[in-house]
Each structure stands twice: as structure tokens, then as C-alpha cells.
Design brief:
This protein has about 375 residues and is mainly alpha-helical. It folds into two domains: about 30-125, no CATH class; about 150-375, MetI-like fold (Orthogonal Bundle), CATH 1.10.3720. The chain is about 75% helix and about 0% strand. It contains 13 helices and no strands.
Length: about 375
């Protein structure tokens, strides 16, 4: 039987595939996956921000309050001005109506609410947040962008400090407890796990009562003493003193449940067959923990930790208010009380972007710590 040869076109395609470097294919999968994830997260942010715009405006009710405030302020201005005192009442009414109409057009209140909500969404996503209605920055600016950028660093500083302490303390304590399973210390730490059901601001109130009101060791709140010290070192020491209580409250609100969860992960993986084989080979306990217990448990640990970060973001509002911490949470609380819709929307957008970045980073961190996961694999998904 004569031997059959593949067509020339197939030979050329195979040669082309062999010449294509693997790195280029991996880079394309990574890029495609990143774009798909960013697109999905952006759609989620858009939907979430638009819903919060509707909630923040109460379906247009807040705009009615703003119209009433405009009419009241204009009436006070016209009737309290000497230049309008001698005018007839009808003329003064015409002037007031004209001023109210001009102000409403400036704020866009003359258009239907569904159109205004779309404009709010566009401005929010582009961070073109306009001017605040009632709040100002410490520098006196009423630009929402300036107000938010002034409050963002304190929130990130407090938040990241507490989360770094929680992560490393929970990791090392959970690993130590897994070596002492069933001991009195292990049972005591497990018994403390339900205390994490209370939010961090709940612990903050008790910490203020004990260490600030009764003992007087630490300040009640704020970020720095008033007036702030001129010396750089003294300023840093003042910030650290004011940081102790809110950071402790955040750590207490999450640490014990974190320890319980991660201890369970370590116990599960320490009973695997490959761990017993490593012990039979004579490897030391440290080597077994580092190679065969800690390394495979890092993916679920990091996942639970980053998802916990999202929960803590939501609790920052009350916590910063309790400690009068000059961050985004307290700013949002003030804006809600003053019906300052531009600031409310601006803070929500920043939180939405921070949450989306956290979720986006989770996928890549997961792929780095777990070699079994391939970013942008078959179908463009991480297995």
C-alpha cells in the first residue's frame, strides 16, 4: 500500500505552530483574561454605582429637598436685602422665581431625574465629581475630588496597618495552634472565635471607655493631637498614639475568627498522605510545615483574607465615626447627614473602585501562590 503523506498546508501550519514561542501564547492568554476580568468588574462597578446613586438620591426625593433649600435661601436673600425692600411684592416674587430657576439650572435640577442620574453616573465614573454642597476640605476647597483625596490617605493608612497586623498575627498563631491541637490554649482560642461576630466599632467603644476615659492612657480619637506638633518625630509619635485604639478595634473584630479558620486549614492539610510520607522520610517539622502544609494552604488563606478585607471596607464608616478618624468613612457619614449627594456618590465610587481592585488582584495573587492555577487558561478562566 502506498504511504500517505499529509497535505503541504498542514505541514506549513505545524511548522508555524512550532516556531511560535510559548511565552507569546501565555502572554496573550494573560492579556485576554485580564481584559475580560476588568470588563466584568467594570460592569459590576457601573451597576453598583448607579444603584447607589438611586439610593443616595432616594429616587429624586433629595432633589426635592434641595429645591426647597434653594427657594428658602433665595427668599431670605431677597427679603433681607435693602435694594429689594421698596419693590412691590409681585416684582420681588418674579425676582425670586428667576433666581431659583437660574440656580436649579446650574445644578441640573430642571431636567428629569432619570437623565440626571445618568449624568451623575457619567461624572462619577470619570471622577468629575463637581462641587460639594455643604462640605469643604481642610484647605477650604469645595471640589469633591479635593475633599476625597484629602480623606483617602488616612483611611488607607488605618486600614492597611490593621490588615497587615491581622494577617501575620493570624497566620503565625494559627500555625502554632495546629501544632498544639487539643491543648488548653487551643481550646481557649477556639472559644474566642465567636467574639469576632461583633463589629470592630463595638470593640472601639469599649476601648475608648477603658483606655481613654478611665485610664487616660490614650486619646479618645482623631488622627493627631490638636494643635499638631511641629516636630516631625513628635508628629509621628502622636499619629501612632492615635492609631493604637482604632487598629486594636479592627484586629479584635477579625483576629479570633481568622485564627480559627486558618487553624482548621492547617489541620486539614497536615493529615494528608504526602505529609505522613514526608515525616517518614525524616524531614524536620519546620520543613514539613513550610513545604507541605503552609504552601498548599496559602490559596484558601489569601482568598478568605481578601474577601474579609471587603467586609472591613464596609465597616469603616461607623468605626471612623466612633474614633473621629478623618477618613472616607467619617466623610460619608457627614455627607449623608447633610444630604450632600455629590460627596456621597464620590465616596461610594472610590469604595467601589477599591473593592474592584481587591477582587482583581485576588485572581493574580491566587495564581502566584498556587502553581496549579493558570491565569487565562482554557476558556479564558482561571482554573
Amino acid at each position: 500500500m502506498p504511504q500517505e503523506y499529509p497535505p503541504q498546508e498542514e505541514l506549513q501550519e505545524e511548522a508555524t505552530e512550532e516556531r511560535t514561542p510559548k511565552g507569546e501564547s501565555d502572554l496573550w492568554r494573560l492579556l485576554r483574561y485580564s481584559l475580560l476580568r476588568l470588563g466584568a468588574l467594570f460592569i459590576a462597578v457601573v451597576v453598583g454605582v448607579y444603584l447607589m446613586i438611586l439610593i443616595a438620591n432616594m429616587g429624586g426625593y433629595v432633589d426635592e429637598i434641595r429645591r426647597a433649600e434653594i427657594a428658602f435661601n433665595v427668599a431670605q436673600q431677597v427679603r433681607g436685602s435693602p435694594e429689594f425692600a421698596e419693590l412691590p411684592e409681585e416684582r420681588r416674587r418674579e425676582i425670586m422665581d428667576s433666581m431659583v430657576e437660574t440656580e436649579e439650572k446650574r445644578l441640573g435640577l430642571h431636567e428629569p431625574f432619570y437623565l440626571r442620574s445618568i449624568y451623575y453616573l457619567r461624572d462619577a465614573l470619570t471622577l468629575d465629581l463637581g462641587r460639594s454642597e455643604n462640605l469643604t476640605s481642610d484647605a477650604g476647597s469645595r471640589q469633591v475630588r479635593h475633599i476625597i483625596l484629602e480623606r483617602l490617605p488616612p483611611t488607607l493608612f488605618l486600614f492597611l496597618t490593621a490588615q497587615i497586623i491581622t494577617f501575620f498575627a493570624g497566620l503565625f498563631i494559627a500555625l502554632a495552634l495546629s501544632r498544639q491541637y487539643g491543648s488548653k490554649l487551643d481550646k481557649f482560642m477556639v472559644a474566642l472565635a465567636p467574639t469576632s461576630a461583633a463589629p470592630s466599632w463595638f470593640y472601639g467603644i469599649f476601648l475608648i471607655l477603658i483606655f481613654a476615659a478611665l485610664l487616660g492612657w490614650l486619646p479618645f480619637g482623631r488622627m493627631v493631637a490638636a494643635p499638631p506638633p511641629d516636630d516631625t518625630l513628635m508628629y509621628a509619635m502622636s499619629v501612632i498614639r492615635h492609631l493604637i485604639l482604632p487598629v486594636t478595634a479592627i484586629v479584635l473584630g477579625a483576629l479570633f475568627l481568622t485564627i480559627y479558620q486558618w487553624r482548621t486549614y492547617f489541620l486539614i492539610y497536615s493529615s494528608e498522605d504526602y505529609v505522613e510520607m514526608a515525616r517518614a522520610k525524616g524531614l524536620s517539622g519546620r520543613q514539613i510545615e513550610r513545604r507541605y502544609i503552609l504552601r498548599p494552604t496559602l490559596p484558601p488563606i489569601i482568598t478568605s483574607f481578601l474577601l474579609g478585607i471587603i467586609t472591613v471596607w464596609m465597616g469603616q464608616i461607623v468605626l471612623e465615626t466612633v474614633f473621629t478618624w478623618p477618613g472616607l468613612g467619617r466623610l460619608l457619614f457627614q455627607a449623608i447627614g447633610l444630604y450632600d449627594t455629590p460627596v456621597i456618590i464620590g465616596v461610594i465610587v472610590i469604595f467601589a473602585f477599591l473593592l474592584a481592585i481587591t477582587v482583581f488582584l485576588l485572581d493574580f495573587i491566587y495564581a502566584i501562590v498556587d502553581p496549579r492555577v493558570k491565569v487565562g487558561g482554557e476558556g479564558g478562566q482561571a482554573a
